[in-house]
Structure prediction request, 848 residues.
Amino acid sequence: MNEILAQNAMPFFFFYMVYVFGVYTLLNLLALFWLRRNSELREYLLRETRLTGREPGVALIVPAYNEGAGIVSSVRSLLQQEYGDFEIIVINDGSSDETLSSLIAEFDLYRFPQAYCQRFATAPIRGVYRSRNEHRLRVVDKENGGSKADAANAGLNIAMRPLVCFMDADEVLDRQALLRTVQYFLDDKLVIACGGVLRPLNGCQVDEGNLIRDAIPHNPLALFQTIEYMRSFLAGRIGWGQLDAVLIISGGYGIFRTDLAVAAGGFDKNFLGEDMDLVLRLHKVMGKQKSAHRGAYKIAFVPETTCWTEVPETLSVFKNQRARWQRGLMECLWAHRRFFFSLRTPAIGWIAMPFFLVVEALSPIVELVGLFIIGYLLATGQLEPMALLMLGAFALAMSMMLSTTSLMLNSLTPGNVVEARETAILLGIIILEPFIYHPLHTYYRLIGILQWVRGSHPSWGTMTRSGRWQNGQ
Amino acid sequence: MPALPSVSDALPQAGALLVNQGMVWATLFFLGVTAWMIGVVVFVKWQQQHSFIRDQKLIATWEGLFFAAITGDDMGSPPAINRVDRRHVLKIWCHIADDVAGDGLDRLTDLGRRIGLDRVALAILKPGRLRLATPSPVEVLLALRAAERLRIGAVWEPLKKVVRVGPAPLDRFAARALVAIDAPAAAPAILPALIRQGRWAAHLVEDLMEVGIASAVEDYAALLNDVNDDAIPGLALLLARCDNPIVLPAVRRRLAAEQTRDPDALAALLNTLSLVGAQGERKLVSSFTGHEQWFVRMRAAQAIGQCGDQRDAASLESLLSDPNWYVRYHAARAVLAITELGGSYLRAIAERTEDRFAHDMALHVLAEAEAPALR
Prediction:
């Protein structure tokens, strides 16, 4: 047993790392090619676009649970979208604070006898409100359904526009976000869903729901997440998009064709990772259509669309969030295991799903087991310290180089200007990340895996907001 | 003579060697690729900066000339464009041309021809045999915009090809250029773009309206006789947007034709009829209220709102209990739109009906009607 361990441990970890870094490098390369070829074109197209009022309508679904402090400025911000036909559907999911009353007072809401489609069963709806001064606003007041998915489904029951956008109530959306994202649908009718970039709001300044200064956070934990978001959204999702293998459109910002979101069954209340689950079910629906020769489809990613969201600044909130995300990931991969090595959706089945399982889901376990084995082999003299040093150096160099590439790709994205001072800080963070952030993150993900193994029920995530970015602070 | 290692001893050593060497090579490989990527990003940033500086210099030279042309001021003979600056000047010209109309645009177009921008666009869209580099998508886009503005007939065939097989969104701009050059002759050529746009064809139609497709509406209406069902949704939408009663006989003929079976085509034709004028078509339109596809029933209900009368009360009331929300909604709106029926009839339905869906929808539409901002 000892011998087998000694002989195979290092090759295993080495090839595991080659696989991980190989895929990440490929994603970076694809993102680079895409950005180089398309960023100027996208900017030009945006300039060419004129709002005619005949753009496809978009229903923005904003689930809100105890968002009384910021819901009014969020809605005000959303109303300023530079887009022709859109409506905002706020779902008050049984909030116990002043979420509903503040909306009623601010927007002069009144009860409207809405005849809605009962596409999905949700917690009972108490009433639908419309505004006397903002015809684009609808507010659905419902009993608490225990999850964001239930609230989003209530929004889907009300949404009657051809496109539907899901987002969180505490986000700040780029004013041209809808325009830029819908452009992808218009340019290619095969596009059925689009995601955008999420960036940390911490450090930015927001006044009345409008971003007045885009800056990197001051909090170290938020800084680490800034790098992580760049890597994940810019390199990762553009790359997966190029491979036709997008598995996640963040629940923070994503636009879907309404008919297909409905056909896919909306959000599943039993999932924590309801956003990933919906995308996988879309693939399932479209995979079936493909087999009937009805044509291909695309799930696109829009790098120039930005949505700012507050990221955790304290370890306890960060731990809850990451453990929850990990549980969601494990649930989705397990529930959709039929995708593995499926011939109907080859890019998903043979590239994305195995990668998400081996790297995104199981890497905390691989790393933990690796630590024990290497420690044991070192202690028993079966491993040369030099070999370990080489493996560690390889891992460190690669992780830093990949993060640096993501940071540089960020500079190619239209409209993104990171000052030299901020770039220097982020480069420093990249050096520290493998020593501080990565072990912490891995530990919290392990907790998430344990929670999944034990079984847990989905609920609204509790995210304590600092809100320091509000009102120009 | 030293003893040779046994095979079982040698294997682990070979494995370790392989891993050690592999690690070195993999590190070198990944570092090489990553360093190359960083190099490319730096180069692209440098290129962007360089291009920006060149743009600024050229704007200083050319913007004044273009503005002088727009206002009709005497500007003497324009300077020749350096070969390396051609794309930049084309970009500046296109950007300015986008924001100008009327006589100013005519004079700017004239200047564009005099300085040879048509030849620049031609070289991009119809390169000779000695093509040195594939133009970037932005260059092609600029050339398409120039072809549209300068009405470059020489690129007709390349434009048709872009519409047929070109990538999105270049096909849309090529269709615009074709219509701008010769709207009647472009009729069959733009159909592939309309078909490809599918459910989002309204966007392309708006583009085509901007370049004056409405002037050739008769030619496009005539196409309805010959095209396959798959071309009808886009074409019907275009005809509806032109909003000219001249298209009605062709729409009516195609709607009644035996050959038209595709539900999308039927729905599109009914939509055109209701938007342009369904008066006198009550009988034809009513025949679709029982269609198996909800979107055909919905469009039929919409059209009845335009041409129906009290004889349609029963069929609209039954559509108010349709399983589909959109059909119920448009049926309620149709009741409201028919003068002989109207709000009082809709309210009466809401009071007497036992169907909850019909009741809710009647109240919904009545509430919308009472709040003008929501209509």
